[in-house]
């Protein structure tokens, strides 16, 4: 939850907390983080490093049931599609 520090800082300053991203906005954040890890670590190491982060995102969003193809995927394009589908399912369930 990378937005947690912003929420804490806002509370300490007496300001309204920033919105927690959901649905498509959260998918955009997670996909960007995933792609940045692949870019930084390289494809092979990035895939391994990303697994724990993606798992955390999915669990926090109540989407642990979608983690199989996401955390075991070796094709970044398929992982991105699966992430977008998972977070799209979350958005559809909230509607």
TrEMBL record:
<protein>
    <submittedName>
        <fullName>NifR3 protein</fullName>
    </submittedName>
</protein>
<dbReference type="InterPro" id="IPR035587">
    <property type="entry name" value="DUS-like_FMN-bd"/>
</dbReference>
<dbReference type="InterPro" id="IPR024036">
    <property type="entry name" value="tRNA-dHydroUridine_Synthase_C"/>
</dbReference>
<dbReference type="GO" id="GO:0016491">
    <property type="term" value="F:oxidoreductase activity"/>
</dbReference>
<feature type="domain" description="DUS-like FMN-binding">
    <location>
        <begin position="1"/>
        <end position="84"/>
    </location>
</feature>
<dbReference type="Pfam" id="PF01207">
    <property type="entry name" value="Dus"/>
</dbReference>
